[in-house]
């Protein structure tokens, strides 16, 4: 498989750039409990906005392709943090860079 950036162009094209837990479970074909566990344990990096988790689609692709690099647009995270005041778990991103 190619890089996350290359796979991003062909995988999950019908999903938005940032997905919810329900969309994550659809993408992976898993239950909601396992989807929450993957995000809460930082196996798939995401962040919480209010009561919902938001997961960059690139992180889901990185998980599926077993690539340790995380292709992430920090300006998107910054926008969410500044405009929605969500709590970001940047430790998840820093460990893999």
Please mark out the parts with pLDDT under 50 across 5 or more consecutive residues, or reply none.
Answer: none
- Count the helices. How many? 6
Cα-based radius of gyration, to the nearest Å: 13 Å
Number of strands: 3
Largest sheet, strands/sense/barrel: 3 strands, antiparallel
Would you kindly provide a written description of the structure presented here, covering whatever features stand out?
There is one protein chain. This protein has 97 residues and is mostly helical. It has six helices and three strands. The protein has helices spanning 4-8, 21-28, 32-40, 57-64, 74-84, 91-96; strands at residues 18-19, 47-49, 52-56. Strands 1-3-2 form a three-stranded antiparallel beta sheet. A hairpin with a 2-residue loop joins strand 2 (47-49) and strand 3. Helix 2 crosses helix 3 (32-40). It is globular and about 30 Å long. The two termini are 20 Å apart.
Supply the key terms.
three-stranded antiparallel sheet, mainly alpha, 48% helix, 6 helices, 97 residues, globular
SSE order and pairing:
Elements: H1 4-8, E1 18-19, H2 21-28, H3 32-40, E2 47-49, E3 52-56, H4 57-64, H5 74-84, H6 91-96
Helix pairs in contact: 2-3
In short:
The protein has 97 residues and is mostly helical. It is built from six helices and three strands; from the N terminus they run αβααββααα. The radius of gyration is 13 Å and the shape is globular.
């Amino acid at each position: 498989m190619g890089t996350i950036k290359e796979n991003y162009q062909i995988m999950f094209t019908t999903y938005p750039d940032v997905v919810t837990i329900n969309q994550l479970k659809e993408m992976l074909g898993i239950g909601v409990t396992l989807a929450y566990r993957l995000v809460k344990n930082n196996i798939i990096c995401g962040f919480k906005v209010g009561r919902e988790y938001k997961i960059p689609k690139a992180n889901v692709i990185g998980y599926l392709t077993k690539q340790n690099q995380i292709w992430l647009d920090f300006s998107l995270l910054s926008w969410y943090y500044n405009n929605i005041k969500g709590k970001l778990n940047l430790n998840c991103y820093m460990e893999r860079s």
